[in-house]
Amino acid sequence: MNKNFWKEKSVFITGINGFVGGNLAKVLSDNGANVFGLIKTIDQRSFLYYTKINKKVVLINGDITNKNLLHTFFSENDIDICFH
Q: C-alpha distances in angstroms, 47 versus 3, 5, 17, 76?
């Protein structure tokens, strides 16, 4: 992985509270990306909180089907890459 590629990139991850999304967020944030994650249900027993990744990323509480939420988020943030 080219670590310099991710530096200062803004990345949006849906399902960040899951195992795959949480690990992706960890790797990207460790490589300098600004990570935003959509989280439907806050579960402080999840991998995201257990490993304290939640302190390295910006979490957006909401549902992927909420078009208004997504429109507002993408209007206010310059996202380079989205993982769904």
A: 23, 25, 7, 28
* Residue for token pair 């991998």: 47
C-alpha span between 73 and 67 (Å, rounded): 10
| 9 neighbors 34 (Cβ within 8 angstroms) | yes
Q: Could you tell me the pTM of the whole model? A: 0.89
For the chain, the domains span 3-63
Phi, psi of 74 (to 5 degrees): -70, -25
In this prediction, residue 59 has a pLDDT band, given cuts at 50, 70 and 90, of very high
Q: Does domain 3-63 have CATH number 3.40.50.11930?
A: no
pLDDT digits (tens, 9 = 90+) for 3-57: 699 999 999 999 898 889 999 999 999 999 999 999 987 777 778 888 899 999 9
The pair of structure tokens assigned to 58 is: 């910006």
